[in-house]
Description:
The protein contains 4 helices and no strands.
Amino acid sequence: MIAYSLGFFAIGGFGNAMVIPQIVPHGIAPEMLRAPPVTAATLLTVAATVYGATALAAATRLWRMKQSAPWVFLAWELATMVYCGLFALLVRLPPDSPPGLGAGLLVLVAMLLVAGWIYVRRVFSQER
């Protein structure tokens, strides 16, 4: 099930990498960005590409139950946190959003990723 989900995450990551260069410089108001639009678009595109590539690698290794799967899954988790962190740093939330919303979402994502890491490590430690 995790491998299937990661396959869809990979599609989403590569899709974002294709769409971000068109949307960020022209489709987002400049005052919503904390960096120049071209810089924000470039950083988010690179992060989305790394996210998609690590998701695809983790999906294939988990599907085949390779011994490297937990470490590639951890690489995907780190890419996810970098992508989310870059987004939080580069894109301003609307002024009427609750204070700490961005940090709260990052903490929630981190907690879910830790739970996933614990599960994958447990499955692969029992596999031996």
